[in-house]
Write a structure and sequence with these properties.
Layout (H helix, E strand, L loop, with lengths): L3 E7 L8 H7 L1 H19 L5 E7 L1 H6 L8 E4 L5 H11 L5 E5 L7 H10 L5 E5 L5 E6 L20 H7 L6 E3 L14 H8 L2
Helix pairs in contact: 1-2
Length: about 200
């Protein structure tokens, strides 16, 4: 069965990406960090066991961007909040299990992705939790219809995001894999990255 990994990416323009990090580092440095972080992540997660697809934003600029590897399939994220856009990706993907990750998670490796797809063997959904109450990965096996209320009333960017999302998956067998940090502020950066940015 086909497996699809969707990576959510934004054009790395100053002031348009990682704005909270930009308040600490400066908007140009934050965009530089995101550009290089996301490109490194894409190199790590490409694997013959699944297809990697880029969900790009803004739609037009992302579809024509030269920043991202040209050999990877791209889908426009479209309008709406994060739940609207992730729901669209889950509905767009070809038949088979789908996992979605953000591009701002320095710790993601192909091993984590393989663990997520493996968890979907015996479960309907899988999450990679984050320490702040959110999550860095969501995956669905998709052998049953996607719940129509998936992501409804999720309090995004709060400590409730994971539990709110789980609540929209009633009667689903749910697994969780490794906890990883995302990067929203300078305090979330690995120390090596922090030092490197300080010398820019």
């Amino acid at each position: 069965m086909n497996r699809t990994l969707v990576v959510m990416v934004k054009e790395p323009r100053p002031g348009r990406v990682k704005s909270r990090l930009g308040r600490d580092l400066g908007m140009t440095a934050a965009a530089w960090w995101f550009r290089h972080q996301s490109r490194a992540l894409l190199r790590r997660v490409q694997d013959p066991r699944w297809q990697v697809v880029l969900a790009v934003a803004p739609d037009h600029a992302g579809m024509t961007s030269r920043v991202w590897p040209s050999h990877l399939t791209r889908w426009p994220q479209g309008r709406g909040n994060l739940g609207d856009r992730m729901g669209r990706m889950l509905g767009t993907a070809p038949p088979g299990p789908v996992c979605i990750v953000g591009a701002d998670i320095p710790g993601i490796t192909a091993t984590h992705i393989a663990s997520a797809f493996g968890a979907l063997g015996a479960n309907d959904a899988v999450f990679g939790p984050a320490p702040d109450g959110g999550y860095w990965l969501i995956g669905l096996k998709r052998v049953r219809p996607i719940p129509p209320r998936l992501f409804a009333n999720v309090r995004w960017s709060t400590e409730h995001a994971l539990m709110d999302t789980i609540a929209t998956l009633p009667n689903h067998r749910i697994a969780q894999i490794a906890t990883l940090n995302d990067v929203d502020t300078i305090d979330d950066l690995p120390m090596t990255n922090r030092g490197r940015r300080a010398t820019c």
